[in-house]
Design goal:
The protein is built from 7 helices and no strands. The protein is an all-alpha fold.
Length: 223
């Protein structure tokens, strides 16, 4: 019966040594395999020297046929065996001819109407355009200043009446002639009257409806 161990004392047991486990490495196996392969190769095969052919041996070289013979052989091989000349089929040639004829006809149809119209235009006689005749009444109605408008270059009793009325307006047509001619002096007098009295409906220096209405109202017999 074993005696109990005293407290505070270490146990007296045998010390266990570590166990080393050796595992083969992959490199060792690869080296072993390579060594076996080299040993088998050196033991089973023998080195045999190859025979050397002498340079410049005419028997070994092959003589090529002349160029003319080769060309003749190629021509014979390319010839058709049936003996018929190679070329495009007749149906394709006919289709191309029909298509070309159709294109030519279409082009002629486009060109002929244009030429016919040009010839007709050349044969037709050129009639001069009628010149519009403008009468005095039409010109008077179209005048923007009014039907009885007087301007420089006119003459007559209406111009005389205009001169006599302007003489009644102070400082507009002083000592002006009353000869019935619408000259430059009368034009300046009408323009002066329009400017002083604020008449803007008519052209400057033209005796239109607005200027006539204002002048007649200022030179009336009862005024």
């Amino acid at each position: 019966m074993p005696t109990p161990e005293e407290p505070g004392k270490p146990h007296e047991r045998p010390v266990l040594e570590p166990i080393r486990v050796l595992r083969p490495r992959n490199t060792d196996a690869l080296a072993e395999l390579f060594r076996e392969m080299t040993e088998d190769a050196t033991g089973s095969y023998e080195a045999v020297p190859l025979p050397k052919e002498p340079l410049g041996n005419e028997d070994v070289t092959r003589q090529l046929p002349p160029v003319t013979d080769r060309v003749r052989n190629l021509r014979r091989e390319r010839r058709p065996r049936s003996g018929r000349a190679s070329g495009p089929p007749r149906a394709a040639v006919a289709a191309v001819a029909v298509l070309g004829a159709a294109l030519v006809g279409f082009a002629c149809a486009l060109l002929l109407p244009g030429r016919g119209n040009e010839a007709a235009a050349q044969t037709q006689p050129s009639t001069p355009a009628p010149t519009p005749t403008v009468t005095a009444t039409a010109a008077g109605s179209v005048d923007p200043d009014g039907a009885g408008t007087l301007r420089e270059g006119d003459s007559g009793p209406e111009v005389t009446d205009l001169q006599q009325r302007l003489l009644r307006i102070p400082n507009v047509y002083d000592n002006g002639p009353t000869d019935g001619r619408y000259d430059t002096v009368l034009t300046e007098a009408v323009a002066r009257f329009q400017l002083w009295y604020g008449i803007r409906g008519d052209e400057t220096g033209v005796y239109g409806d607005d200027t006539r209405r204002d002048l007649e109202s200022r030179t009336a017999s009862g005024a």
